[in-house]
Write a structure and sequence with these properties.
By secondary structure, the protein is of the alpha/beta class. The chain is 45% helix and 19% strand. It has a five-stranded parallel beta sheet with strand order 3-2-1-4-5, sandwiched between helices. The termini are far apart. 32% of the residues are buried. It binds adenosine-5'-diphosphate (ADP).
């Protein structure tokens, strides 16, 4: 079996991210969730906070082959460091696909031995994005079903206060 990384901002982690992660955990020997650090200034949560929230969900879901770590720089370097031969990406729509295809070509240029694997969003979660979560919460909307239950209160507290 192969090892994979699943990178992103995860600001915050949503049900859409969790859906991809759970499906990937069944397929791969291990999955490292790489939480992008170098976006601190415009993020709602620090990288360490985002890691902690994701770890809480991973523990609640008992995803024993999933690891979470913050990283900065190139995703291909994280893949090498963790011994992964695969970079996993989730696709919601055609917009995601065209963006991801460009990223895939750049990553192949940098590391031809590391493959990008796409997983289509489950229809139930394809409409969810971290930016929508922030928007909904800012206007007092309910996050139930949009973010994982174990982190719903922590996310709402932070985003409402902003
Ligand atoms: P980025 O800043 O790299 O776009 P995100 O945290 O938004 O990071 O997303 C990380 C990964 O999760 C990306 O591959 C993205 O396409 C995927 N993703 C985001 N939301 C969903 C969703 N609702 N369903 C499936 N995949 C998703």
């Amino acid at each position: 079996m192969t090892k994979a990384i699943f990178t992103g901002s995860f600001d915050p982690f949503t049900m859409g991210h969790l859906d991809i992660l759970k499906r990937a955990a069944l397929l791969f020997e291990s999955v490292t969730v790489g939480v992008l650090e170098n976006m601190e200034k415009r993020s709602a949560f620090t990288a360490q906070e985002r890691c902690e929230l994701i770890r809480r969900v991973v523990a609640a879901e008992t995803l024993q082959n999933v690891h979470v770590e913050a990283f900065s720089g190139l995703a291909v370097e994280l893949a090498r460091r963790t011994g992964s031969d695969c970079m996993l990406r989730g696709l919601r729509d055609a917009g995601d696909l065209s963006y991801e295809q460009r990223l895939e070509q750049l990553n192949l240029h940098l590391a031809p031995d590391i493959q990008t694997i796409y997983m289509a969003a489950s229809p139930a979660y394809a409409h969810i994005s971290s930016s929508a979560i922030k928007e909904i919460c800012a206007w007092g909307g309910n996050l139930e079903g949009l973010v994982p239950a174990p982190i719903q209160i922590s996310i709402a507290e932070r985003l409402i206060k902003r």
